[in-house]
What does this fold into?
Amino acid sequence: MAGNGSALFYRVNLPNNDEATKLVSSVLAVLGDRFNSDEIDVDQNLFNASRVFKIGGTYARKSDDLRGIDGVENRPHRRSCYVVDGPIEVVDQ
It folds into this structure.
């Protein structure tokens, strides 16, 4: 749980260069085309290596904590956590 929904993590063995960035961007675009729906949104902006990881246990706090405010949608600050089920393997090219 990333604080704003669920996330899947894959360790990818790629250099941090323009070619790898374009490859990851293309893969995310294909995944978005295939799986995006009313319930699922593949975030296609996470191809930049400096933005792809949120530290577990931190909060999603882009705005005020609106928990319990009358007449306002219940949007509390949400804490991220990660559930790992089995070993995390590296995906090679």
User: Anything to note?
Assistant: The longest helix spans residues 18-35. The chain has a mean pLDDT of 76. The two ends are 27 Å apart (CA to CA). Helices lie at 18-35.
